[in-house]
Each structure stands twice: as C-alpha cells, then as structure tokens.
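Weekly modeling sync, notes
Attendees: S.R. (lead), two postdocs, one rotation student

Agenda item 3: backlog of single-chain predictions. S.R. asked that every request posted to the team notebook include the full sequence so nobody has to chase files. The rotation student volunteered to paste the first one in as an example of the format we agreed on. Action items at the bottom.

Example entry:
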Amino acid sequence: MAKHQFQTEANQILHLMIHSLYSNKEIFLRELISNGSDALDKLNMLVLTDEKYKNVQFDPRIDIIPNKENKTLTIKDSGIGMNEEDLINNIGTIAKSGTKAFIESLSGDQKKDSQLIGQFGVGFYAAFMVAGKVEVVTKKAGEEQAYIWTSTGNGEFDLDKTERDGHGTTITLYLNDDENEFLEEYRISSIIEKYSNHIPFAIFMDKEHYTPAKKDDEGKEIEAEKTEIVNEQINKANALWTISKSEISDDEYKDFYKSIAHDSTDPLTWIHNKAEGAIEYTTLFYIPTNAPMDMYRVDYQPGIKLYINRVFITDDEKELMPTYLRFLRGVIDSKDLPLNVSREILQNNAVLAKIKNASVKKILSELSKMAKNDAEKYDTFIKEFGNVLKEGLYSDYANREKILDLLRFSTLNSDEKTSLEEFVKNVDAQKKEIYYITAKSTVSMLKNNPALERFKAKGIDVLILNEEVDTIVFPMVSKYKEYKLVNVSDAKFEESEEDKKAKEESKKEYEPLTKEFKDTLKDDVKDVEVTFDLTDSAVAIKEDKEDPSFMMAQMMRQMGQGGDVPMPKPILQINPNHELIKKLKDSADQNLINDAAHVLLDQAKLFNGMEIEDIPSFITKLNRIITKAL
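Predicted structure, as returned to the notebook:
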C-alpha cells in the first residue's frame, strides 16, 4: 500500500473540517451526492459522444447505505469513476480555483473560518466533519483496475489496488461517535429532500416498511404484522429547470441552488426562462446573496452548467456567459446543439451566441425590475456585484447604456448613492455634461480633492468614482444617452475677457516661483503651472492626457496590465490666490521654498490617493517648515 502526502492546501482544509465548530454538518451529504451526480453526468456525455465509451453500460443511480452496526455511511454511484491519477489529482490536491480562494480567505480564527464552510461546502473534504476515517473504492469506466483510497485526515492517505464490480465510486464514512444521527433513515431522507431532490439521477436507500396485522370481522388475526426492508428511490430525480415555473415552489428553487452552487445561503434571486421558436432552450440563472470567493481571480470557476436535451456537457466553459456576469450560477439547456459539440465549436457556435445574447438581455432586464421594485434587495446586489458589473462597460458595448442605468454612484453633493437617471435631472440642460472624478481612494478623500473646488464653488454635482475598476473603465465611457461624460480635469467653463486678462497677468507674476519649484522638484514632476481652478487648496496635481506615455499606461491598464507600465510624471498646479503661495512668492528663503515645493507635491499626491515615496524625507522637510513658522 503506497502512502501519499496531501498537498499543503488540502491539509489545511482537512484540519478545518476535523476541528470545525460548524453546526450545519449535514452539508457533507449534499457535497458527496453532488459529486456522484457530476460523475454520472460525465459518463452520460461520454457514452453518447465518445466511441471509446460506446460499449460502457450506463445505468445511472446513487445509493445511500447506512450501517448502524458498523457505524458507517456509504454513498455509491455508477458514474465515470476514477483511476490512480484521478484520485491523486481530485482528492489529494486542491484543483479548483474556488477551493483555493476558500483557503486564501481563512483568517486563522477557527470560529469565523468554520462559517465559511456553509457558504462554500468544499466538496469531498466536508466528509471529515463527521467521519474519523474515509474510504474510497473506485474504478474508471472502460478500465479494468480498481483502487482503494483511505485517509484519517492526518495529512496523508493510502492508495492501493483493489477489486470492484463495475465502474463508479463507493465512499464509506466511518462516522465519529457523536454523529449517529446520520445513520437514521428519517435524517438522511430529510437531507436528500432539502438539498438533492432535483439531482437528475435517482437516489436509492433501504427503508423500513411496517405493515400492521390484519384481522377478520370477529377480530381474529388472519395476517401477522411485519416489517420489511424495501430499496426505494428517495428523491424526485427530475431536472428542476425542465418543470413549469408554476409547479416549482420558492423552497424548491432555493434548494436546487444550494445543490448546484455548493452554498448554504439562499440566493438573492433567480431567473427561469423557457424560449420557444427558431431556437428552443431553457435557462435557470441564480444571483447569489454573497459574491463567490474566487470572483476576482483570473482562474475563477464558472458557475453555469451547459446541458443539451438534459445531457450534461460542461461546467467549465467561461464563454457561456460574459465575464462581468461571472457571479451567476445556474443552467443552460439547449435542444439545438449537437451532443458531441467540442469546446472550440462552443466558442464559435451561432446558436449558443444567440442564447448568450438573449440571456444577457434578460438578466439585465430583470435587474432593472429589481432596482425599481425592491430597492433593499438591489442595494445588496450592488454592494456585492456592482464593481464586477462595471467591467461590462468596456467588454459589452452593445449593453453599455443598460449597464450604466444599473450602476449606483456616490456624488459630491449627496451622502446617498444615486443612479445616472436621477443624477442627470440636475445636470445643466444646455451643456449636457456629466462630470466625474476617478482615483483609487475613499469617497471622503475624493470629495475633498482640490480638483473639485471649482465645482463646489459653482454648486455643480460630480460623480465620485473611487474604485480601481473606475479608473480603468470610465475613461472609455464617453456618453450616457445625450449626455457627455467629462473628467473634472477636462471641464471647461466660460469666462469673460477681463477674467482671461487677469489670469494671464497672474501667470506672469508667478513665473519665477513656478520656475523655482520646477528646478527644485526636477524629475519628480513634468511641469509646474499656475491654475485658477482652486479656491481653498494651495496646490493640486493633474496628468497630461496628451502625453504618449499617459495614453500607453491607460491602454495597458485597460488590458489588465497597468502594474507593468508607470504613469507619466504629474503636473503640479499652484493656486496664486492662496495665502501660502503668495508668501512663498515673496520669500527670499531659498531653503524654505525648496522644502515647501516637496511638501506641497507630496500633499497633492496624498489627495489623489497616491503614495509618498520617501516618507522620512517628507516628515523632515515638514518639521523644518513648522520650526521656522514657530
């Protein structure tokens, strides 16, 4: 018998399962039955589409076998099965990004971490919440050799050859002393009904049937009472999405979601749609209440299963839905695709493209209804998925305006988030310009950004876009309906000839100071210039959007490679009407001017959510200025 070590991440999960304080342990059965259903799905597809498997018998079923005498619970399926390589890769190693994300979210606080199990389930490993030892006997369809895998969750597992009649997998849990409830017929049946009723394959279990004694009219017993064991199906085994919506209860929708999404929380909402006509298909999409843990990972696990005439095809195809809707969980079932469709064909299939486009429109439409009819639920959606929805602004041009209508924004003049539809009611009807400011910062910091001072003075509201995705997406969004979106740094306001003349004179007056600042700051800035956009602040910084390096940096950021291309040096702007700048203009203390130039630049960077590169130098210079002022 060969011993193997669990991968480090798998070991972490095992430790959490074994020592978990999690109260909802019943999900282990949901997870193991879901795995068995997946194994049956995969074999069904291969038998129908792969010559290699055409002679393999497909007799789908899952059996639950409680044994009170031995204190074991067995879950057996007749699915695809596993060989030695599959066992090591599927059980000994963390293979899916979602499970990796689960590991990364662990905090070290056992009580907090155990609550994550309910949200995520973490598949096969959940068995160790109730079992001190787990044994897996499996044989892959089309192969002769069976294998036995055994572990007590102690950091290693044994793997050896064995015998098994037929393909499939048998998992035997040696239950812990305090887990006898999972050997009771009623308890198992209730868990199946709750989580696995609509698994599309029959689940069987031996059940006791009691028949009372029969008596004749005179009370004489003519047939003794008896108890017999009957092996019977304990789930409905009908694909939920194929049933008419009017025949499905909300609880059934929720339980099916928990089964396919491996989530113990109820979904936020669901969208069940059957299309008939030129193309026939059924979709059932769920929006989770909580964002999937791997939502912002490049290797996120897609949540949509593709079926063709109820035959499972794939659950690993990211092209089924656009990436900005990757939080969706659910099913697409089409009648108009060939069963032997390949991944390459899927990605370029006209039928699937039509299903995808129609589904996106339907989802966006339903979200719009939610926004109008259930503000509290929609607020939950926006908090969890608003940022990922914004990605659609640059990846889905056809639905850009619909997505813009769904987003909610912080604004300069309000403490509440608002829609663009509401925001434009207060926009200048002549100019039709929506002003916005972007930076990776807090809303509070952005609201106090010097670049907004002229807007405050004029009472003009501004969109506050403080997420990193905003800095990438919104430079590409030029309009909303008949309104133009304008960055605050590009906003132009009308001014009189007298104002223009006064500004020119002021610029000339401050040329010596701007030159001194430029000489002092050297390569830290591209230029120093006078600005009349500030009212309260002494300085601000802006970017030269005509600079080729700025345009290149923006383009790379939009491609997700912003970290590799540095942004160009900023332009430092000084406010000639600020008392501090006036005093510096009149000062003969060159050391003071030099220190002030550096401190003011760093101050402006902080306002823009940028980091100060040399904090000790900043503090030293600031202290010298304060000392001179005392």
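Discussion: group reviewed the output briefly. The mean pLDDT is 87.
Action items: rotation student to repeat for the remaining queue; S.R. to check formatting next week.
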